[in-house]
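Inputs:
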Amino acid sequence: MKRYLTAAAVLAVLIAGGLWFAMQGAGRPVVAVVGSGRHVVTLTLATPRSGDQTVTLQVTDRSGAPYAAPSLPFAAVLPTMGYSSPPMWAFAERTRGQFRVDGVPLMAPGGWQFYVTLRDTSGEEQVMVPVSIAG
Amino acid sequence: MTRLIRWPLLVGLFLAAVLLPTASPALADGSGAGADVSVAQSLGGRELTVTVRRITSIPGPLQVDVISHAGTPAGVLRLSVVPTGADQPGSGRSASGVATSTASLTLSGTPGASSAVLQIGRAGPWELAIDDGRQVSRIPFVARGQATSPPERAVYGGFVGAGVCLLAAFVLAVVVGRTWWLAAVGAGLVCGIAVAVTGAILSASLPLPPQPGFQIDPTVQNAADPYTTSLKTSDYSRPPAMLLLRQTTVNASAPTTVGLLLSDAATGLPVDDLVIHDSALMHLMIIGPTGRLWHLHPVRTAPGEFAFTLTAPAAGHYAVTAELARRGGGVQMLRSATGLDATGAAADPADPAPMTTNERRVINGTTVQIAMSDPPAGTPATLRARIGTTADLQPWLGMLGHLIVVGPLPGDGKAAMGTAAQGAPVWSHGHSMGSQIVMSTSGSMAGMSTADGMAMEPMVPMVGANGASLPDETIEAYGPTVGFTYVFPLPGTYRAWIQVERHFTVMTVPVLIKVAAA
């Protein structure tokens, strides 16, 4: 009897391990850092799934100083489908340099591109952050 | 288990346990992968071929060779590499966007290759910036890590697990002596071997992951290991691009830098996902009013923005067409709807009349012989050109010869070529990989004019030294005959241009072809 219990316990551990391995990476937030010559953008997509999603942005200049603006233009593009979201705005949060945009319409899985437009005294520049949406 | 079989079994298990784990995985996280990448660049007044040599280690050196052609002025190029693209936070690397390595490269004015060595610190997307003092060309490329596929990891892991089980079985058999423990570990051994064998069988048949740079947007992570991407689809293609000229008029006889904007045909956004195709990001063909052809390679100055410098020798219209390939899709030809108009006084030099399809002529000291039977429309026809007398052609843009065909043209195909080319139904660009000797069933040579007296020579295969990279322009060993087989879709008069490279000079030979109705 003891042997059967031991075997069952080993089997259960193996199955649990397999499930844990299979679930690795599924649904975890996507965080990506992209730099330009003048800025650094850290984009977080809490739920990398199809649907209306929330994107948060941490924007600094190259020295680490927070990007100061009440909002910044944002767009989501799925190039393989020839789709672009309507112009959107990411609004500043309480934390300096942090912005948030709700309701980003990710209607299909694929290789999405998030465009963030930044302005400073040197002019305007656009930063593209690629994010894969699996399901 | 009897004593008779226990000891031989234990010895066998011990040997296997010692030997099996030595089949360790060839971990190659620090190695690069890929081949040489050549990119033609029309930078200012220079026509250069920039070759990024195969990356052998990451971090490590990045050798950049710049091949200049005859007539390229001497000067200094400032080279730098800039990491681009997305990374994961906490990697310890500084964010992309700032140059990490710079070098200078001196062009002596003598045709040939010059080299510079830069350093790259990580796998992922990069930009090679080349500054000639007036313009900065930004060439995107991807430094790829050498990743181990999941089936390969299963093979390694399975065998390592089997080895551990063998060792455990040895210890258990000697120390514990319980048969059922031994059986359990033996089952693990069998499982390990089964996993390894299954992985080995699957490794050859499983599809490759999407290729960063070619199919999907590259990031640091997917360039280092393409198996990390969760994106899997059967169609990575993107919409066509639109070719928009930033200006449509230029002054004749004055060098003018013309900007090009590539716009996505679906969203209107700038297109910044070109992949290198036939050794260039973009092949730009311009046909002027006198019938001259320019085959340029505009430099990428910003996302979606390209530029080239043109000195229009005559007033009149210049038809413009680009060939390019976007990430995830095939090659596309974009014909500018506007073209360029050159105004003002100009020297209007007379370009040489096009050759006929059976003619021998000396062009700039080189004997050129053209041979072709006048073809009917809709039938494959072979145009052959013998350039010089010895096998000294150099591959240009990865090919021995280029054939650009435009037509049918109005009239005799000689007047107002720019305007005629703007409205021509057919624009084609084909290649030659050799002389294309066609053997008939009787063993005689067929597919060419019998009256041209053109000597035949065996084709020299274009095989690179390391098998992965084709020979570059420094190899002068091909030809002298190049052949092109083409089906003229419509009857009429066509203008064709044959382009080959010899002695680091690109020769352009115009040919007039009359195509009869089928």
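The interface with chain A takes residues 85-89, 94-98, 180, 216-217, 219, 229-231, 233, 235-239, 264-267, 269, 272-273, 303, 328 of chain B (CB under 8 Å). Flag for discussion at group meeting.
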